[in-house]
Structures are given as C-alpha cells and as structure tokens.
Amino acid sequence: MERFPSDLLGAIDDLRRERNAIILAHYYQEPDIQDVADVIGDSLQLAKAAQKADADVILFCGVHFMAETAKILNPDRIVVIPDMAAGCSLASGCPAPALRRMKERLPDHKVVSYINCSAAVKAESDIICTSSNAERVINSFGPDEKILFAPDRNLGAWLQKRTGRTMALWQSTCIVHETFNERKLIELRVRHPKAKVVAHPECEPNILDKADFIGSTSALLTYVETSDAPAFIVATESGILHQMKKAAPGKELIPLPGMQENCACNECPFMRLNTLEKMFLALRDLQPRIEMDEDLRRRALVPLERMMALG
Ligand code: 13P
Ligand code: SF4
Questions:
Q1: pTM of the predicted model, to two decimals?
Q2: DSSP conformational letter for 258
Q3: Average per-residue pLDDT in the chain?
Q4: In this structure, is residue 3 part of a structural domain?
Q5: Is residue 116 in contact with ligand 1, taking CB distance under 6 Å?
Q6: Which of 35, 166, 227, 273 keeps 20 to 30 A from 85, CA to CA?
Q7: How does DSSP classify residue 195?
Q8: Ligand 2 within 6 A of 172 CB?
C-alpha cells in the first residue's frame, strides 16, 4: 500500500517547486484542495489560466474535460489530473458520433457546445461557451442563423429565455444540478424571507424560476459578495461555499439540498474523486497525464479559440 508523507501539504508544496508546476482548482473541489491551489476559478477562468501558464506542469484539480481543455489550449505543458475517472455526466451524455448524427439531421445549424464536453465533441463544434459567456456567444450569431446547442438542455433552455431565440437542444443534464429539491427551496424561502436564491444555470427550470440571481460559479460568488442581502440559498455544488464564506464572512449561506434526505447530492461525485493524496502522487509520478492526438487537438482548438476571442 502507498505510504504518504505525514506533512502532505508540505510535500505537495515541495513537489510543486521541484516540478515547476502550477496547481489549478475548480470551485467545486474540497476546501483543502482549493487552499493549496495557485489559481481557483470557474471553468472559463481556469481555461484562461491554463492557456497562459508557463510552468512545466499543470496539475488540474477539476474534472477530465477541464484538464483536456488545458491541454488543447497549452499543448507544450505536461497536464496531469489527480484522478482520470473524474468525468462529467454532461460530457459522457454527448458522445461525438451521436452529435455527428444530429448534425447530419440539422445541416444548416451552427453547433454551440458547452465546454463540459469531450475534445471530440469540441472538434465537431463551431464555437464553445461556458456558463460565464454563453449569452454573449449565442448573441454573436445573426438572428437568422440556426443553432444546435449541446449538451446541457437546462443551460440551453435558460439561454433561449435570455436571448429570445429558439435552438435545437441536446438533452443531457448535470447529475448534481438536476437533483435540487424544489419543495425544500420553497420551505427555505419561507423560513429565511430575507435570503436571496442564487442558482447555476445547469439547474432544472423549476429551480431557476425561483432564483433571484442565475450565473456561473464565479458570478454567484461575486453576487454573494456584493449583494446587500444578509443570507443566500445556494443552488449549486456545495464546494463553492468555501470561497463564499471567505468573500462574505458575515452572511448566512444555506446550501440547497438534493431530493433525498441526508444525501450529499449537492456534491459532484466526479469532482470529489480528487484528494490531496492523489495530488501528491500526480506531482510525484507526473501521471495520470492528459495525452491527445495532435489532429484532434487542433480541431478542438478552433472553436475554443473562437470563444476566447469573444472575451
Ligand atoms: P462553471 O463554468 O460555472 O465553472 O461550471 C462548470 C461546471 O461543471 C458546473 O457544474
Ligand atoms: Fe459535470 Fe455536474 Fe460535476 Fe459540473 S457538477 S462537473 S456539470 S457532473
């Protein structure tokens, strides 16, 4: 069995220096991982940090599509991830061959893909978006252009409402954001009348309809920090509460539970596969490593760069 140093944080720090590595962590990581990271952010912020990273090694504490995006944007770095099994239900719900078949049925549609998808799906797309810039990306198309939006149907439906345009929607969902409990939300609002409801657009429409503010992970964080409200009911992965507590120390933060009583449904099971122990091993062994066929990488880069150019 693997033996780990008693001072794991110190050992990670030493390896980070020896390897000339940068540690990027998503807001949905465990607090101890967020605290040891060089950069914490949402998927767009982390993609930008990865793109400009000049360290030899990027240790990406997030899920596979995020680490893959880092490799696509910055191929000369060694990109490692603590656990290769850290997937995403949205990415696995949209296999590239199935998307190709849908494109054949809708040949006059432009394909906008949410960044939560594989490199192969990115390579089939005209442009990528994240939840931070999705509205801007959709609005960059002329009113007569037809759009196929993949893979998140909830984000897609919300974008239809925001932009007033109809799109063909792929029908995948996030297994975390689809499970928030509407009945609990109604109860919590009655119990905390001054609380604002903040929600990620991956939530189901019945939750989004009750939200005071909808936005990406970083937008929710900024809203909680800058709003005058004393309390917030938070409808997204509960890892974000760590930074919310730091940014808004006096405010009450109430995580919205999932459907089942006493489950950890508001924690992403993929994100939570990452641990400090696996980070230590990844930096020590430079494995598991993201590798990609160069032709696929180049094709996936085109729609990502179009997104980056929009800001
Ligand atoms: P963000 O773009 O807000 O980081 O969302 C990524 C994600 O996976 C949400 O579930
Ligand atoms: Fe994917 Fe949902 Fe986990 Fe985000 S929270 S990585 S969308 S499964």
A1: 0.97
A2: B
A3: 97
A4: no
A5: yes
A6: 35
A7: P
A8: no
- Nearest ligand to the C-alpha atom of residue 271: 2
Domain assignment of residue 262, yes or no: no
Query: Residue 153 is which amino acid?
Result: R
CA 65 to ligand 1 centroid distance, Å: 11
Single-letter amino acid, residue 225: E
Is residue 145 in a domain?
yes
Ligand 1 in contact with 181 (CB < 6 A)?
Answer: no
Residue 82: what are its φ and ψ, rounded to 5°?
-60, -35
Which of 209, 229, 255 is the C-terminal boundary of a domain? 255
Same-domain status, 163 and 189: no
Supply 187's token pair: 């109860």
175 CB near ligand 2 (under 6 Å): yes
CA–CA separation, 17 and 15 (whole Å):
5
- Residues 62 and 106 placed together within one structural domain of the fold: no
Ligand 2 atom at minimal distance to the Cα of residue 237: 5
Is 245 inside any structural domain?
Answer: yes
> Which of 153, 173, 193 finishes a domain?
173
- For ligand 1, atom 4, the nearest C-alpha belongs to 42
For residue 16, the number of C-alpha atoms closer than 13 Å in the C-beta half-sphere is 17
Atom of ligand 2 nearest to the CA of 88: 1
State if residue 237 touches ligand 2 by the CB under 6 angstroms criterion.
yes
Whether 63 lines ligand 2, by a CB cut-off of 6 Å, is yes
Q: What is the total count of domains within the chain?
A: 3
Q: Where are the alpha helices (DSSP H) in the chain?
A: 8-19, 31-36, 43-52, 64-73, 89-92, 96-105, 119-123, 134-139, 153-163, 182-191, 205-208, 217-226, 241-247, 276-285, 294-310
- The model's pLDDT over 271-308, given as tens digits with 9 standing for 90+, comes to 999 999 999 999 999 999 999 999 999 999 999 999 99
3-state secondary structure of 180: strand
Q: What would the pLDDT profile of 48-84 be if each residue is shown by its tens digit?
A: 999 999 999 999 999 999 999 999 999 999 999 999 9
